[in-house]
Amino acid sequence: MKITFFGVRGSIPSPGYDTYRYGGNTSCIHIETASGQDLVLDAGTGIRKLGKRLVEKNNTINLLLSHGHWDHIQGYPFFLPIYQPDRKIRVYTGATKGHEQICSLFDQIDGANFPVKATELPSQSECITANVETELARQNISVRRIPINHPGGGFGYRIEEDGTSCAYITDNELEPPDKVATTYDQWVAFCHGVDVLIHDAQYLEADMPHKHGWGHSLVSQVRQLAVDAEVRCLAMFHHDPDRTDTEIDFIQKENELFFQGKHAPSISLCAAENMQIKLTAQLDKPTVIEIDRAGP
Fold it and tell me: Which stretches does DSSP call E strand in 116-232?
């Protein structure tokens, strides 16, 4: 499978001189499976650029939404495939409150907050809120999901295909102060041995205790999860909008020092727009992981 990052920021878009290398668009990742399926993870502002590529195709688009917060849905009205006549788009909700919350993706396209109404779109869009894993399996996509520790709820996902695997866990607080939807040990088990772990790493110790309970993890916590779960490649994601490229460079250097001499992960990255990770399975051997930092 090929994993391409189109938006890696959290909370709000942050374009500018200090963020152009890692990118200022909010959450969106594209996974192209070996069988040719297009799987989109979240619909932040990064989905606009992705749409310019997918509009050249005519296959069904499967969109997994982690949750309904603004920075994960705000790019959808600018996603070109939704304006293609009869283009099939299947949206799978990460919401825990059923159909009402997933519809926020479409409710923003209401003629008032956006000049077009969702009912006027020519594409064939479908919201799937129940039996998500079963419905994806019918599309020949193997996905498991798990509740995230985030205000309002939502889900993280593990995608597997022909011996390759990727876990996408954003807006997740590994050690929340209040009710725990998924314990740390459960996260370790869910992520164990995955080829690529993409995990929210928005905060540093300096952000605490003020932001404890806001639903995001510390960089240090994500590092330890990668070690404990023996993942092969860690991609830190959902960068704070105030975090400059230089500051993220420093986190990357700290990652490399932290992981030296440890069994896992063998690769650590701070995710950047256009970065691509290609996974190729091998019989009786570890998956080949190729990193293209400049992207396709």
Answer: 124-128, 142-147, 155-161, 164-169, 196-200
